[in-house]
Here is the input.
Amino acid sequence: MQADSRESLEGKTPLPCPFQEPMTAPKHMQDGSTAVAEQLETIDLSNDPSVPRPISVSVHLTGEEKEALVSLLKEFRDVFAWSYEEMPGLNSNLVEIEKLLAARFIKPIKHPTWLANVVPVKKKTGVIRICTDYRDLNRACSNDEFPLPNMDILIDSTSGQGFLSFMDVFSGYNQIKMSPKDAKKTAFRTPYENFYSKVMLFGLKNAGATYQRAMMAVFHDMMGKEVEDYVDDLVVKSKTRGSH
Here is the structure.
């Protein structure tokens, strides 16, 4: 008997579904298509127009929900970052060259033992990002087998919720400091000088596992309850809209 059969073999009578009946989707998502892009409205959390602090909220929030949510985010806006200068970095116990230097993410090096090339990459938004080619360094590194979350479990744990908030950690990998004994192995060349990174870079072999371990340390008592996480993507969830 196939797993998706709803009939018995003999009497052909419908069997009760072993799964909970799905929740009715909001009306604005019931257009018959397989996927509906959420419509978002940009809200500025800043009191200073010259220093914007943009976030996005659903246009389908009620006036009361929007007012309460924006008020909450404004009250705690100091926990968010919109620039490199606002990133304090994670406690060590647990892009352009000018910007990286100003943020103290990189430091000049004169006698590197490893040296990688940099490659400019154009993102979908049109912004040019500088990526470092760490393939040789990565081949010399052993694997960190710290497990990443199971995507099926994450999807199941967020389905049926009344309200979801999505957060993408700002320049998340750069918030983890490199070990002093290994930092100089990240050296890369530029037309101006050779530099090495004082913070973890996305292109390093074990960056994902290292970041996931850090997130587990920070949110260990909330994961699977109010929070779900996959590396630098966070979802805050609640059963009801009012309790969010």
Residues 162 and 240 are 4 Å apart (CA to CA). Residues 1-21 have pLDDT under 50 and may be disordered. The longest helix spans residues 63-75. DSSP finds five helices and ten strands in the chain.
